[in-house]
Design brief:
Keywords: Hydrolase
Protein name: Glycosyl hydrolase family 88
Shape: globular
Number of strands: 0
GO molecular function: hydrolase activity
Radius of gyration: 13 Å
Number of domains: 1
Structural class: mainly alpha
């Protein structure tokens, strides 16, 4: 599953709302990006994933996440809760989005402290 997710990462370092059709919502999406980054880092930290293969994925994803933090500290580009993807922008946020960001950040901290 990690290999497939990594292969769907877009050039900007994020994963878009529609994984198989990123052009349908051609803007970054940070909640999924946060969760995928967290999962990949967890796999690296627990010896499940190969550093040479998956660290470059994190190196693209983390700056994209950090770049979505607005000047007021709000994480933007978060999908709303719902049954289908929706358009998002820098002001779009939901409570679970920063949670995914913090999970990824906590695993990144563990990784760099190893």
């Amino acid at each position: 599953m990690a290999a497939r997710i990594a292969s769907l990462q877009t050039a900007d370092g994020t994963w878009h709302a529609s994984l198989l059709d990123p052009e349908s919502f051609p803007v970054k999406e940070t909640s999924g990006t946060g969760f995928y980054t967290y999962a990949i880092l967890w796999g690296l930290n627990n010896g499940v994933l190969d550093r040479a293969t998956y660290w470059p994925v994190v190196e693209k994803a983390w700056p994209a996440l950090v770049g979505a933090v607005q000047p007021d500290g709000k994480l933007g580009y978060v999908q709303p809760v719902g049954a289908a993807p929706d358009k998002v922008d820098a002001n779009s946020t939901e409570t679970y989005g920063p949670g995914a960001f913090l999970l990824a950040g906590s695993e990144l901290l563990k990784y760099v402290k190893r």
